[in-house]
Amino acid sequence: MRDRIVAGNWKMNNDFNETEKLLDQLKSYPEPSDVKIMIAPSFTQLYQSVQLLKSTNISVVAQNMGIAPSGAYTGEVSPKMLKGIGVNTVIIGHSERRDIFKEDDNFLTKKIKIAIESDLKVIFCFGEKLEDRVLKNHFEIVANQLKVALLNLSYKNIMKIILAYEPVWAIGTGETASAAQAQEMHSYIRNIISSYFDSKVADKVPILYGGSVKPSNAKEIFSESDVDGGLIGGASLNAEDFMNIANSF
Ligand code: PGA
Q1: CB count, 10 Å around CB of 42?
Q2: What is the pLDDT of residue 172?
């Protein structure tokens, strides 16, 4: 069976005190036994979160990473720095990185390579914009994003990737892809992975859905056969909502 994963992307929220409070609240809920729970705080809160979550199975993920193992990259954080504090997974390609910080597919492919060479797991985000969906180009856009990022990975390295399909029009907008829309795209994505590698590999790669997942819609979305969990933004800032989502399989 594929891993079921619920990952909370805190984005640029939660300072030191807020992190302590939210993690205390999270720890007061029982963890579902068959779901991997992850949270992605800001860089400054990673070490604190790793320490506070030591007694749990919740893992701590970085929201981003620099593009080299080390060197003259002012303001960046290296994979080694992340590993050194117990962070073993990084989000790459979030639509906010693509849109606001102009990270394109080639740049992101470089980041994936560096992450994997540094023995980090990657949550790779991709998805179409509203205009792509309106023009019915969404399959083509997603196929291209996957091709650039994944086609040249080895069989061994594709197993270090968690995919996160996040239609940009659903992120932070309150609008969600329907469960049927999510399933349609996830099954398309799994077929692409199968064509690049084989069906055994495609069967193992988790594909998360992201975009306005809430306790009220998580169950329906997660019930689809190719949806293996979610990448949760807004709702991950509230412990009760986040744990409700984690219990929605
Ligand atoms: P949202 O964000 O749940 O607030 O829509 C999802 C994401 O950006 O990963």
Answers
A1: 17
A2: 87
- Reference 46, options 29, 64, 71, 25; nearest CA is 64
Mean pLDDT over 121-133 rounds to 96
Q: How far is the CA of 72 from the centre of ligand 1 (A)?
A: 32
The pLDDT value given to residue 162: 98
Please choose from 64, 232, 241 the residue to mutate so as to test ligand 1's pocket, defined by most ligand atoms within 8 A of CB: 232
CA distances to 43, 140, 197, 236 from 40, in Å: 9, 29, 29, 10
- Segment 146-168 shows an average pLDDT of 96
pTM given for the model? 0.97
Q: At what angle do helices 16-27 and 239-246 cross, to 10 degrees?
A: 40
Answer yes or no: 138 catalytic.
no
